[in-house]
Amino acid sequence: MAVNKLEYSQIQCKNRLSSTEDALYVLGGRWTIRVMIAILGGHTRFNDIQRTLKGISAKMLSSELKKLEVNLLVERNVYADQTPVVVEYIPTEYSKSLKDIITALAQWGAQHKRKITSDNS
User: pTM for the whole thing?
Assistant: First the structure.
């Protein structure tokens, strides 16, 4: 009889679940990672971000940007000395810690898409 070796101990499992829940609380929204990808890709103004993310409403984008600002992932800069007033959302140094996570998700997504399409052909 084969015995399955556990990948994680009970304590490790509990700790990983807790940490993952914390991460998903910050990043788990439908648009959150997409907004971060746009900002990290150089799109810093509200309308530019909205044009890049087809289908996001202004209200949702505003909410996501506020959430990212509260979580120290973006910094909102207002240039009131210009007409019209310019507002930019700049990635923080801390937000760059998401790069490996976003890259891994993108790679897994591409791999998954290939697997699903090749297995269903």
Answer: 0.84
